[in-house]
Amino acid sequence: MNGATFFLAVNFIIAISFSLVFAVVSTRSRSRSAALWFAAGFAVASLSAICELLVAYTALTRFWAIGAFATVLGGMILLRIGIGDLYGRKSNLLFAICFLVACTILDVLIYNLPRGTVLHAFSYQTPFALVVLASAFAVLSSARRLAIDRALGGLLLVTGLHFFGKAGMAVLAGAGTTAKDYIHTNYALISQSSTAVLMVAVGLTLLSVLVLEIMADERSNSEKDALSGLANRRGFENGVKAAIVREPNVLHAVIICDLDHFKSINDTYGHHGGDLVIRAFGELLKTNAANSIVVGRIGGEEFGVFMPNTTIEMALIFAQSLRAGTMGIRISALPSSFTVTASFGVAELAPGGELADAMRKADAALYEAKRTGRNCVKQAHPGFPPSGPIRVVK
Questions:
Q1: Mean pLDDT across the chain, nearest whole number?
Q2: Domains within the chain, CATH numbers bracketed
Q3: What is the distance between the alpha carbons of residues 361 and 312, in angstroms, rounded to a whole number?
Q4: 289 phi, psi to nearest 5 deg
Q5: Nearest to 14 by CA among 203, 194, 205
Q6: Is 377 helix (H, G, I), strand (E, B) or coil?
Q7: What DSSP state is assigned to residue 374?
């Protein structure tokens, strides 16, 4: 086994391995279709190694040489489709098929040209370069701007340009007199080894993009309350901290909401009825909160609302609108006479202030709302919170 044959075997194993890994990743990734395109792309590209070996060791040289070209190009096109799917740069499938057919016909037409000439070398390598450069453009022109995305775009750019380098090397170093001779040339050794390195780099980077997505989703799920659809307490606090970091030198507002008489709701209608109320109230908060507002379920029937860059006066108006909206909640599984109410405590978070202090003040204002009759909004005043733990009347 010479060096080129060795790298052909290595490339085959690498491509098949990546195909299997992407197929597995597709079962967990939100970008499932992109992962499946990647799996298909590496699987198809792996066939080129088999075709190259059959070129060297069978009589059907022309057939397998064209097959090697088509499988490599086909695999790259499938990767381009997956990248477009992942980065919001959709590919036209009909155009992709036509491009593959046209380039394969071109390969048939140039097959008998002298190998190692400028016309043959660049005609052969240019389709590969165009597909990979199109992939680089899809990544670099997308709205995604993470470091891993820029790294992938740069790597694809280098990979695309390297095909032109391979064409120049074929002209300078020679690629064998015939397709059968290719595998025994130094050019083949360099070509296959460089392809192996770049294939591993691209594959690992694509895999990293998908794995980072999965990790982000898992982290998001761990910070989400399944019943209400809102953030849980940890997710709420993390979201608030991130919002404060973005705007550290402005006033913010915190609202603590608590459903009134929730224990009696559970006692009368069962826990299923209570769950329906929590779900409906969570939907009300989601519907009324702007994208910048952080909303979460921070306790059993207690909810938190953080309004960045908001005065206490605006927060009070918003809390009053939520109170009125709560009274309008209707749940089909519960009697039509059933009415939901909630109490609200509102506090200000000054620049440099502690979130925990603002939460305690809002909680104290909520306690005051509960104590004075429920179904109302109270603002924290300078005397809040009282010393000692706050016990909210349900």
A1: 88
A2: 3-221 (1.20.1070), 233-379 (3.30.70.270)
A3: 13
A4: -85, 135
A5: 203
A6: strand
A7: S
Rg of the chain taking only CA atoms, in angstroms:
31
- Tell how far CA 212 is from the center of its chain: 8
Q: Is 215 exposed, middle or buried (0-12, 13-18, 19+ CB in 10 A)?
A: exposed
Who has greater pLDDT, 200 or 282?
A: 282
Q: Token pair for residue 97? A: 């098929």
Cα angle 172, 187, 11 (rounded to 5 degrees) comes to 145
φ and ψ at 191, to 5 degrees? -60, -50
Instruction: State the DSSP H helix or E strand holding residue 62, giving kind and residue range, or none if neither.
Output: helix 61-86
**Within 13 Å, how many C-alpha atoms sit on residue 104's CB side?**
20
Taking only the tens place, the pLDDT of each residue in 159-207 is 999 999 888 887 877 766 655 566 656 666 677 677 778 888 999 999 9
Closest CA to 52 of 63, 43, 44: 63
Q: List b or e across 155-194, with b for residues whose CB sees 16 or more CB atoms inside 10 angstroms.
A: bbbebbebbbebbebbbeeebbeebbbbbebebbbbbbbb
In angstroms, rounded to a whole number, what is the distance separating the alpha carbons of residues 228 and 276? Answer: 9
Query: 0.70 exceeded by the pTM?
Result: no
Cα 41-89-212 angle, rounded to 5 deg: 70
| Interatomic CA distance for residues 377 and 316, integer angstroms | 7
> Which residue do the tokens 């299923």 mark?
272
Burial class (CB in 10 A: 0-12, 13-18, 19+), 339: middle
Q: Is 229 exposed, middle or buried (0-12, 13-18, 19+ CB in 10 A)?
A: middle
**Cα–Cα distance, 116 to 256 (Å, whole number):** 75
Residues 6+ apart with CB under 8 A from 255: 304, 305, 306, 307, 315, 318, 319, 322, 344, 345, 346, 362
One-letter identity of residue 28: R
Let me know how long the chain is: 394
